[in-house]
């Protein structure tokens, strides 16, 4: 009997000596304030995969991180133009395995077709959220300080005489040449994709003309706070940033009323993509998270929380009614048809735009 007990002990001992299996980790790099925290918690509970979640507030920050290589991220959320397009061309993204994403079938084929121009066959990404670039403002301040200025045109901000009248309540332009310059060029009647030196000089002159009247050129996250608190009364930024700020202002009860307006004559349309870096440490977990996000009820929770539309049509009836019925969140078909999607430019043209933006920020 004693020998049997010793033998049993020897057989069992190695089982206790085995190291505990490490919990899998999914490393996500996404925009600031761009997901429902409850979605992250639900995924972790369902899968046992822990999410390490980092944020950025500009495409330049994202591209800088990825261009250095070995970022350590498994899932990133670049805008289709230009960041996602450049990453696709550079071979920096892993082709998606659709067999691991059965909820791909939930995506809107018409919207996916709009990003297929930069990702043939939609091999490297799926649409997460989308929106437009336009104006966020306090209508009462606009009426008081510039009663004759149009509220649905970039004239409200880009005409120096209007900027001068409104400066006292705070003006801002988001810190993103990628998203601002196409809107300025379009307002000037030039192509948003123009590389012509004369067009760029005209756009730079328009920006420098209002530069003395700007209170800030902040990142997206800071801009939302400034709008919500009333520190600024007018900004050129993303549609969802304004809608988020309006919700925060209502919750704070400080009497700050905010409205978003997509510029008449066509607004800059953008799509943010879910993509997996080519050197992702845990691509299996990234695929699982993408599939999870494409569930209608999950996407509905995200849109209800961040107030940006998604590309899963079946989610719309599940979105909070106030968000679902807001035309600034879900634009009318006619407005969407008139929106433009800027293209990715050659590297030399991008460098010229970056230099322009640096001069604008410096005010010279």
Structural summary, described in words:
It is built from 17 helices and eight strands. It has 364 residues and is an alpha/beta fold. It folds into two domains: 25-131 and 269-331, D-Maltodextrin-Binding Protein, domain 2 (3-Layer(aba) Sandwich), CATH 3.40.190; 132-268 and 344-362, 3-Layer(aba) Sandwich (D-Maltodextrin-Binding Protein, domain 2), CATH 3.40.190.10. Strands 4, 5, 6, 7 and 8 form a five-stranded mixed beta sheet that branches. A three-stranded parallel beta sheet has the order 2-1-3. The protein is globular and about 60 Å long. The N and C termini lie far apart (91 Å). Mean pLDDT is 91; it is low at 1-11 and 13-20.
Topology at a glance:
Elements: H1 2-17, E1 25-31, H2 37-47, E2 50-56, H3 59-67, E3 75-76, H4 80-89, H5 109-115, E4 126-137, H6 139-145, H7 155-158, H8 160-166, E5 171-173, H9 177-187, H10 197-210, H11 220-229, E6 234-238, H12 239-252, E7 259-261, E8 268-274, H13 283-293, H14 296-306, H15 321-324, H16 333-338, H17 347-362
Parallel strand pairs: 1-2, 1-3, 5-6
Antiparallel strand pairs: 4-6, 4-7, 4-8
């Amino acid at each position: 009997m004693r020998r049997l007990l010793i033998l049993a002990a020897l057989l069992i001992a190695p089982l206790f000596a085995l190291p505990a299996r490490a919990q899998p980790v999914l490393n996500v790099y996404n925009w600031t304030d761009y997901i429902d925290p409850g979605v992250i918690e639900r995924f972790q509970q369902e899968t046992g995969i822990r999410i390490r979640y980092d944020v950025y507030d500009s495409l330049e920050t994202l591209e800088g991180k990825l261009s250095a290589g070995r970022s350590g991220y498994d899932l990133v959320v670049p805008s289709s133009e230009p960041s996602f397009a450049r990453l696709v061309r550079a071979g920096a993204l892993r082709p998606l395995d659709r067999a691991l994403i059965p909820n791909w079938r939930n995506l809107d084929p018409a919207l996916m077709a709009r990003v297929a121009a930069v990702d043939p066959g939609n091999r490297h990404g799926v649409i997460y959220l989308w929106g437009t670039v336009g104006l966020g403002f306090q209508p009462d301040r606009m009426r008081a300080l510039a009663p004759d200025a149009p509220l649905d045109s970039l004239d409200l901000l880009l005409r120096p005489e209007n900027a001068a009248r409104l400066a006292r309540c705070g003006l801002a332009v988001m810190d993103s040449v990628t998203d601002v310059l196409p809107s300025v060029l379009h307002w000037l009647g030039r192509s948003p994709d123009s590389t012509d030196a004369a067009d760029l000089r005209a756009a730079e002159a328009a920006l420098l003309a209002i530069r003395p009247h700007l209170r800030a050129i902040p990142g997206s996250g800071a801009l939302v706070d400034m709008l919500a608190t009333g520190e600024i009364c007018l900004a050129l930024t993303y549609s969802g940033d304004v809608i988020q700020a309006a919700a925060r202002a209502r919750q704070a009860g400080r009497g700050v009323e905010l409205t978003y307006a997509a510029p008449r004559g066509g607004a800059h349309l953008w799509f943010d993509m879910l993509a997996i870096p080519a050197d992702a440490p845990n691509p299996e977990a990234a695929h699982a998270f993408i599939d999870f996000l494409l569930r209608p009820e999950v996407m509905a929770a995200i849109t209800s929380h961040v107030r940006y539309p998604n590309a899963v049509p079946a989610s719309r009836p599940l979105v909070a009614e106030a968000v679902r019925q807001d035309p600034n969140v879900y634009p009318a078909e006619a407005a969407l048809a008139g929106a433009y999607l800027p293209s990715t430019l050659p590297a030399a043209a991008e460098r010229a735009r970056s230099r322009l933006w640096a001069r604008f920020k410096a005010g010279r």
